[in-house]
Design goal:
430 residues; mainly alpha; Growth Hormone, Chain: A; disordered C terminus; MFS_trans_sf; Putative MFS transporter; membrane; MFS
Length: 430
């Protein structure tokens, strides 16, 4: 009896891409997390005012919103992989330049450059997972979500010891090496791809041809219209925004909330580290489960419940049972990796995934930017954290309503993808 041919290994030929995806994940939060522990040390060389330090905390979310939105048209023109290489090198350049800055405005400007590359990387990863791992979206999203959590948790732990050993400039600039290393696998992918090389040659010659340009424009316009008119896309954007708003608000104000409760700012900083670290195990599990469920809404409900109990604990008894409130708050943002997985799961083609990722993250981070600023203003107006925490609780209701729509088992562009498989002419470029 003849033996059956062995099934192809599911990862064969894709390990370089997987390495690139994970390394990008390791790079996506370094520019945010590596600076805050060094503020007092940096002030000796870079005269940062309190207002500029506050701006330094707001720049990441604004950069993610602005430059994440720009990633879509750039990727449409250059291609996903070349745009990722450009984003990583942009990020690394910004990190090196800000490490050598001598004035506060220069440090802020180069920080925005570093975060611009990371904002583009945020948007490009989900469609790259869709392109190369359509059969493993949940697993691969979990892999880079864990890497992203590591990039949030590790730099604050080593930044100050490294600054004490080699100076703060080395402590800030050394992370550029991660961005350069992350670009290498994508360069390998481009070199191996005949289509990518041909496309880049056409761009260099500036002669892609009028027919090809018109086709790309029509395809891009069609994808953009479909996504921006979709209630599913808007629901995902609002869910993403409310989840990120809560996360960045906690990062900005948790030490102050606990200090006002009598626990001290230093203790609040340690609880904030726990809040960041708890995202790692949830990032490993949540996207995998989301990929196996028809609707991951029950998971979102569970995580929102964690948010809610954590907020209530801070409202009613912040100095008692603090470890419980912090653990629950740490689990609350786990809706984030679920949404990253849904970008790939709810789109029929990588082209649509690019547009959806840009729209969801652009709108979402723009909403999130209102959180730290708005909550701070509310505290200044009332002199208490009670009203601020009640507002955060109310926004969880908005998150739940939007998430119920976002989790429905609907796929954007599915009729066009079916038409393409049947040999008919689709309206969207694959």
């Amino acid at each position: 009896m003849p033996s059956r041919p062995a099934e192809p290994a599911p990862w064969r030929g894709r390990l370089v891409v997987l390495a690139g995806i994970v390394l990008v994940g390791l790079n996506l939060r370094i520019a945010v997390a590596a600076v805050s522990p060094l503020i007092d040390v940096m002030r000796e060389d870079v005269a940062l005012t309190s207002a500029q330090i506050g701006l330094l905390g707001t720049i990441p979310v604004l950069s993610f919103a602005l430059f994440g939105s720009l990633a879509t048209p750039v990727a449409r023109h250059l291609g996903l992989e070349p745009t990722m290489v450009a984003a990583l090198l942009l990020s690394a350049t910004g990190e090196v330049l800000r490490a050598n800055a001598t004035t506060a405005p220069a440090f802020l400007a180069w920080s925005m450059l570093a975060l611009a590359g990371m904002g583009m990387g945020n948007v490009l990863l989900p469609p790259l997972v869709k392109r190369y791992f359509p059969d493993r979206i949940g697993v691969v999203t979990a892999a880079y979500s864990v890497a992203l959590s590591v990039s949030t948790a590790v730099p604050p732990l080593v930044a100050l010891p490294l600054a004490q050993a080699a100076g703060w400039r080395w402590s800030v600039g050394v992370w550029a090496a991660v961005g350069v290393a992350a670009a290498v696998p994508w360069v390998v992918v481009i070199v191996r791809s005949v289509a990518a090389r041909a496309h880049l040659r056409e761009l260099v010659r500036r002669s892609p041809g009028p027919a090809a340009s018109a086709l790309t424009a029509r395809a891009g316009d069609g994808a953009t219209r479909l996504v921006w008119r979709s209630s599913l896309a808007w629901a995902m954007a609002v869910t993403f925004g409310m989840n990120s708003l809560g996360t960045y608000t906690v990062f900005a104000w948790l030490p102050e909330i606990l200090a006002d409760a009598g626990l001290g700012t230093e203790v609040g900083g340690r609880w904030l580290a726990l809040f960041a670290i708890l995202g790692l195990p949830a990032s490993l599990v949540a996207p995998v489960l989301a990929g196996r469920m028809r609707s991951p809404f029950p998971l979102v409900v569970a995580f929102v419940a964690c948010w809610a109990v954590g907020y209530l604990g801070l409202l009613l008894a912040p100095a008692h049972g603090t470890v419980v409130w912090m653990v629950l708050l740490g689990l609350g943002p786990s809706t984030f990796p679920i949404l990253l997985a849904l970008i790939g799961l709810r789109t029929a083609t990588p082209a649509l995934a690019v547009v959806l990722s840009g729209m969801v993250q652009g709108v979402g981070y723009a909403l999130a930017a209102l959180g730290p600023i708005g909550i701070g203003l509310l505290y200044d107006a009332t002199g208490s954290w009670d009203a601020a925490l009640l507002v955060l609780l109310a926004l969880l209701v908005v998150l739940l309503v939007a998430a119920r729509r976002a989790c429905r088992p609907e796929v954007l562009g599915e009729p066009d993808a079916a038409a393409e498989r049947a040999g008919r002419s689709p309206t969207l470029d694959r």
